[in-house]
Design brief:
Layout: E1 5-7, E2 17-25, E3 28-35, E4 39-42, H1 46-56, H2 61-72, E5 80-83, E6 88-92, E7 103-105, E8 109-114, E9 120-124, E10 129-132, H3 136-167, H4 169-189
Parallel strand pairs: 1-4
Antiparallel strand pairs: 2-3, 2-7, 3-4, 5-6, 6-7, 8-9, 9-10
Length: 190
């Protein structure tokens, strides 16, 4: 473990998380977590961190995978939406069951290109680079799947917003909120 890395026990993926990599630590599989300005080592496997983070945001990993299947029809090496509020979409580089699977957050992938060893060199948002043992075409496909998932999700949200705006539902809610606020102020001003 380098000076920049420190061991942590608990970890939930956040908007600062860029990548979760499997590393061998002694005889066990741990995770190396890359954040914008920090690196951590966790005694948990990358998939365990992903699953725990899904639960932290109110779902299960299986539920997130089912959501991906319903929205874009992908079942193998499926990207998942971890959290819609922070627009956190996770990309696995292989089958998540594979101990070599690396997880990247879509918003932090700045650039990618073929490396000299026929892998993919990924430049992250903070200009750090990571060589991933996956072909450029496979990685590009994974990025496209994650982008498609994000697009489809936000299209569904926009369609729902438009549907309820047409029915006046939002207008009625706003009016009741304003009325409630007025009654609340009036109650305490008397």
């Amino acid at each position: 473990m380098s000076e920049k890395e420190r061991m942590i026990e608990e970890y939930e993926i956040s908007p600062y998380t860029m990548a979760i990599l499997p590393i061998t630590y002694g005889s066990k599989l741990y995770s190396e977590i890359w954040e914008l300005e920090n690196r951590f080592i966790s005694p948990f496997k990358p998939l365990d961190i992903v699953k725990k983070s899904c639960e932290y945001f109110g779902s299960s990993y299986e539920g997130r995978r089912n959501g991906t299947r319903r929205l874009i029809g992908v079942t193998h090496k499926a990207p998942i939406m971890l959290d819609s509020y922070t627009s956190s979409f996770l990309i696995p580089t292989t089958s998540p069951m594979n101990p070599d699977c690396i997880w990247l957050l879509l918003n932090h992938v700045h650039h990618h290109e073929k490396s000299s060893s026929n892998n993919t060199l990924v430049t992250l948002r903070n200009n750090q680079t990571l060589e991933i043992p996956i072909s450029l075409s496979s990685f590009t496909n994974q990025l496209q799947r994650a982008a498609q998932l994000r697009l489809k999700y936000y299209q569904h949200i926009e369609n729902m917003d438009n549907k309820y705006k047409r029915t006046g539902f939002y207008l009625n809610m706003e009016a009741s909120e304003q009325k409630r606020d007025y009654e609340f102020k009036r109650f305490f001003s008397e």
